Amino acid sequence: MATVYLNGAFLPLEEARIPVLDRGFIFGDGVYEVIPVYDRQPFRLRHHLDRLQHSLDGIRLANPLAPAEWETLIGRIVAEAEWLDQGVYLQVTRGPAPRDHAFPKTVRPTVFVMATALKTPSAELVSGGVAAITAADNRWLNCDLKTTSLLANVLLRQLAVDAGCAETLLIRDGFLSEGATSNIFMVKDGVVLAPPKSNLMLPGITYDVVLELAAAEGLPHAVRPIAEAELRAADEVWLTSSTKEITAVVTLDGQAVGSGRPGPVFKRMHAAYQAFKHRIMRGQDG
Ligand code: PDD
Fold it and tell me: 203 FRET partner, CA 20 to 30 A, in 39, 46, 209, 243?
């Protein structure tokens, strides 16, 4: 039985309970993080904790824990979990209070942390890629905050599942924003392109790593708005996230992307990412 953390206590998942008036349950009034852990080494933990702070600031909720306290807490969850590779999920809500949209006078935030097994993309997925669709990005204008109010993302991602696809790529005002659960890159004529960070997308931790690796590998790359027409004419499309790492998108709305197979730039970036991960496992980067 997996051990989770809830409001100061470590207990089995099955015994963790929150009051029904928790504002996370009533309003989706909370934020979260998903941190990949390889061989019990959290990947880019400080970056995830910085983004958590950004999300908390964005919803005007004081961080209940200092960074060192988060590190200790996450360290214990990771140490006690049964898997070497894990996804650590943490959530902070504005806590239980009588139902009223306005903030309660006294806030008792709910803090929840759990680990699950991390299933990194299989060899078939890496060599074969995935299918994706596009949809209009109908989310709010604070997509840079990792909030638990995920209904729009849930509905958009389900469109992909209904179509037998892995992801929904989101288009807002004629430009690519991101995926329903991932960031999106494309390659044209050997140049790696990514949309710039803004309020319209989540600043992905994997996105940052991929751009750093592009620079380190000497791959031509640019961060700039990507028009829908450019996306549809891409040689390669990739999605990135903490759980999917880097995965090639090989069909978009039923049309082949480039050759219809994961491309040469993807293969190079995928290899660079795996090498980077292994350096993390040896404790050479945080
Ligand atoms: N989601 N964009 C959205 C909307 C996401 O939900 C995610 C990740 C990303 C990628 O961010 P990162 O590289 O930091 O994981 C981009 C996580 C994995 C989730 O909600 O489960």
Answer: 39
Distance (Å, whole) CA 271 – CA 265:
10
Q: What are phi and psi of 191, to 5 degrees?
A: -105, 125
Domains and CATH numbers, the chain: 3-117 (3.30.470.10), 123-281 (3.20.10.10)
Nearest protein Cα to ligand 1, atom 1 = 181
Q: Which of the following is catalytic: 146, 188, 197, 244?
A: 146
Q: Measure 180 CA to ligand 1 centroid, in angstroms.
A: 8
> Ligand 1 centroid vs 19 CA: distance in angstroms?
27
What is the Rg, in whole angstroms, of the alpha carbon atoms belonging to the chain?
A: 19
pLDDT the model gives residue 280? 78
Model confidence over 121-166: pLDDT tens digits? Answer: 999 999 999 999 999 999 999 999 999 999 999 999 999 999 999 9
